[in-house]
Amino acid sequence: MERSETAGPAAGAPSPSPSLKPGAIGFVDALVIGLAATSPAYSLAAILGPVVALVGIYAAGTLLASFVPMLLIASAFYYLNKVDQDCGTTFSWVTRAMGPTFGWIGGWAITLTGVLVIGSLAEVGVRFGLLTLGLDELADNQPVVMAGAVALIALMTWLCVLGTEVSARVQNGLILAQVGALLAFAVVALVRVAAGDAAVGAPAMSLAWLDPFGAGGAALTGGLLLGVFAYWGWESAVNLSEETSDPASAPGRAAVLSTLILLLTYVGVAFALVAVAGTEFLAENAEEEEFIFGLLAEQVLGGWDWVVLLAVTTSAIASTQTTIIPASRTALSMARRGAIPPAFARIHPRFRTPDVATWAVAAIAVLWYLGLSAVSENALFDSLTALSLLIAFYYALTGIACALYYRRHLLESVRNLLLIGIGPVVGAVMLLWLLVESVIDMADPENSYTGQAWFGMGPPLVIGIVILAVGLVLLAVSRVRGSAFWAERAGVADPGLVPGGAREQR
Prior knowledge:
Strand order of the largest sheet: 1-3-2
Structural class: mainly alpha
Order of helices and strands: EHHHHHHHHHHHHHHHHHHHEE
Number of domains: 1
Number of strands: 3
Strand content: under 5%
Distance between the termini: 6 Å
Shape: globular
Number of helices: 19
Helix content: 55-70%
CATH class: Mainly Alpha
CATH superfamily: Amino acid/polyamine transporter I
């Protein structure tokens, strides 16, 4: 039986009025937002030391290996967006391919990733902003930093509500600052190495460092988990598909290209820093996380060390804003399909943005940040560790949904089989394997920042289990309330619209 319907925001339900603003941004804006959402400078600073501590000289190769599942899942996002330009992305696609229960859980995972990380990003932005200005004493004052973080979240949320065009203009400036600073840092580091000015004991540069399997074993697995966190966020561009020119193609292309740009940036900087500083220095300072760039900046750039501090500042500020986008758009998509209360589907009549969903995500993120900070700073870090569970889960779910939704078209060409079927499934299997490894690792309290057992397990795993449990309870409540959403059934892509149309066959 064949049924035609609009694959956009209101598939199977009446559209709210007003709607999101079509054509508000273009391809370049979407690309910038996808890059900014990953917070390149902050993410690389946060994971570089721990990765080197695990794999040594093969840090760049490990980041290369981490890129593989990201590219394969980016392919899934590209092809699913071609047949369903819905700002809910994974939520909408998984619902179509696997049914409403899996779709709801996927949407819940995306929304909670934003809630977990927004506060920490804002804190890093404020702290490094103060360090960049030379206000070190204020940067060490936790109440001041926390107050600044809450104010920054409020400001970034307000900019998101003002309009997608405003958000894009802000991001265009911020991304140039951070990526430019990172690349300049890498170039200067390599020049110093070439001039014989590397740290004492630093290894001689070798292309063998790019071997993605050089470390092998448990060390490689741990490095891959950190790498996945560093790449996470590029799909924010696809969450804006309803507001992007050429919505069936541009957001997906932006997502794929952003992963490639991140690959070059991450691998290049990691390679350069291992060459100039040596693995011993990076490993010894692994616990410094994002502050490791501050330690290296003076050594590499001398009096220009503020450039790297500024890069981390702009990176965290930019990501504070762009991380709100996927969570709020997913909540909007869920609400207008009837999966969560309809209040979250409200769109501001003037700015054409989901104002209720945006402010709600920010408010919950602030409460989470303040609550865990009151427990301890380590508890907040443990909540960030739990992010890897959610990320691996909803990325893997998307890869599987792609193959299922296109399953009647996989044998039509070699390209379809590889890019729509095998590729996304392989990416999903890799991420599920990392998910299992994460659970095993997080079960041991000694592998947490807190170092204490919660209910006999590591705090990150407990946080992940609680998030899943709360999601299942809310899912059950939504089912009891009843809506047309829960009557939806899994379907397959309409043969006539596989190149980029908007109907489906059921």
